[in-house]
Amino acid sequence: MSKKYIFTDSVGYLTTTISRILKQKLQSRFNTLDLNTTPEQWRLLVLISNEGEMNQSQIAKLQHKDRAATKRMLDNLENKQLVIRKSGIDARSNTIALTKAGQHVVNIFKDASKNTVTEALSCFTETEAKTLNQLLNKLLTHIE
């Protein structure tokens, strides 16, 4: 007799649901800061802040997003004057950099993000939280 499949115990269900709830909590915190930026946009800004200038293809790859979706997000961030495109030989070689306003958003939202994650992980000991992080990174590396 086969074991009953319980969808709500699946890794896909759990990671998607946790991600959605964390995103909602983070958006709620961001809304109180009144900077008109989404968690997804902030994630991209942090990537550029941490990694430095890079082209759109590099950003898409690091975000695990397609280039078209990345371009739309970058266009939006450019309209908000949070990033700038620096011209290269052609459009594919343009590099994306943060503006001072973009770096300001990153700095302000860092605390909101840290607080959201700290609250979420408060049900774990420090060792458990580190183990969870290691296991999730191992899974991500395996499925990439």
From TrEMBL:
Keywords: DNA-binding. Signal peptide: none annotated. It holds the Pfam family MarR. Residues 8-141 form the HTH marR-type domain. GO terms for biological process: response to stress. One of its GO terms (molecular function) is DNA binding. PANTHER family: HTH-TYPE TRANSCRIPTIONAL REPRESSOR YETL, TRANSCRIPTIONAL REGULATOR, MARR FAMILY. This is DNA-binding transcriptional regulator, MarR family.
